[in-house]
């Protein structure tokens, strides 16, 4: 991959991706072919040697306990904080779904500079990773789904696929395969490089500081409540995003390809603004709708269409209806609402 980029890009690449430049100790032990994962890397509760990331375990643990406290104390009179939290969380969600997922990872559409900046800032407000790391992990996930190289391999169980993978050091296969997945397009995007350079200030500013400052300064709301709303929406959005990797890889139907693990999940689509039609998405990853239908629990598609009407998003990609039909008839499990030959019970 590096041979196809310029020397400036190689330097940016080394700065941008310390994981690749470091000398990784590749110790492969026996692979269990049947379960398709290295038995020395089971789950957080199995045998894990020294690969636990304790900082993430503590951070996520404490933040989830704090969010639990926030939810236990919810009262109707703080509805304004709930609405504000949901509004801010939705902006972050749009940054994840339309931004880092459909635009930066899959290039399902093209975007002008203002829209790219909006997507980057919206994604920064989600309080997740750098665009580069997120995209690399997700491209590896698509290319090596349900193998050791999949960062959140659902074969290792719900907890690992949901958030356990963030609490353990990466499996060696994830690191090695991460090196061969082409991410050179990101190095040519100044918006991505800017977010990489100012990752932490952007994350803190847009995910936590601004959602607190706006209501305190303009509407005189109490600081403590606004901090709770900011933390609550962050943790909630993390779980909505994670549910695509866990629930939408475990429980649902497979109308487009029965040979793969990703499934269709209405619940996850509702929670993740349209990302739960995952059997379709893994079959046609370049479709900007990430689903066959435009607006079935898919508010992200609606917003991309709005930007397309403005001319800010263009060259929206999607397969022909004929191709989708042929694939569904040939490879699906028969549960397709139009072209299915049997009805498969939804395990949701
Ligand atoms: Zn997936
Ligand atoms: Zn994807």
Automatic annotation (TrEMBL):
GO MF annotations in UniProt: iron ion binding; stearoyl-CoA 9-desaturase activity
Domain of life: Eukaryota
GO biological process terms on file: unsaturated fatty acid biosynthetic process
Cofactor(s) listed in the protein's UniProt record: Fe(2+)
GO cellular component, one term: endoplasmic reticulum membrane
Membrane topology: Multi-pass membrane protein
Pfam families the record matches: FA_desaturase (PF00487)
Compartment annotation: Membrane
Primary localization: membrane
Written domain comment of the UniProt record: The histidine box domains are involved in binding the catalytic metal ions.
Protein name: Fatty acid desaturase domain-containing protein
């Amino acid at each position: 991959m590096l041979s196809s980029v310029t020397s400036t890009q190689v330097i940016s690449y080394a700065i941008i991706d310390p994981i690749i430049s470091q000398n990784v100790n590749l110790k492969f032990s026996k692979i269990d072919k049947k379960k398709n994962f290295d038995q020395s890397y089971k789950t957080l509760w199995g045998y894990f040697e020294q690969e636990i990331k304790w900082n993430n375990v503590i951070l996520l643990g404490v933040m989830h306990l704090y969010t639990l406290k926030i939810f236990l104390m919810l009262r109707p009179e703080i509805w304004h904080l709930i609405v504000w939290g949901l509004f801010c969380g939705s902006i972050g969600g749009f940054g994840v779904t339309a931004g880092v997922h459909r635009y930066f990872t899959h290039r399902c559409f093209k975007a002008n500079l203002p829209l790219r900046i909006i997507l980057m800032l919206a994604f920064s407000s989600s309080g997740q990773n750098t665009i580069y790391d997120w995209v690399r992990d997700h491209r590896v996930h698509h290319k090596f789904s349900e193998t050791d190289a999949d960062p959140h391999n659902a074969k290792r169980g719900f907890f690992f696929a949901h958030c356990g993978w963030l609490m353990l050091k990466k499996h060696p296969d994830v690191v090695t395969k991460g090196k061969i997945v082409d991410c050179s397009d990101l190095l040519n995007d100044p918006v991505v490089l800017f977010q990489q350079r100012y990752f932490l200030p952007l994350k803190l500013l847009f995910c936590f500081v601004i959602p607190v400052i706006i209501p305190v300064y303009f509407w005189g709301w109490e600081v403590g409540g606004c901090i709770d709303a900011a933390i609550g929406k962050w943790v909630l959005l993390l779980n909505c995003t994670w549910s695509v990797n866990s629930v939408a890889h475990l429980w649902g139907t497979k109308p487009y390809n029965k040979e793969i693990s990703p499934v269709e999940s209405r619940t996850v689509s509702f929670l993740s603004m349209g990302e739960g039609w995952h059997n379709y998405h893994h079959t046609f990853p370049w479709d900007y709708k990430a689903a066959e239908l435009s607006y079935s629990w898919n508010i992200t598609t609606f917003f991309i269409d709005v930007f397309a009407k403005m001319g800010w998003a263009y060259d929206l990609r999607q397969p022909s209806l004929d191709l989708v039909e042929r694939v569904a008839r040939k490879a699906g499990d028969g549960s397709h609402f139009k072209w299915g030959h049997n009805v498969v019970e939804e395990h949701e």
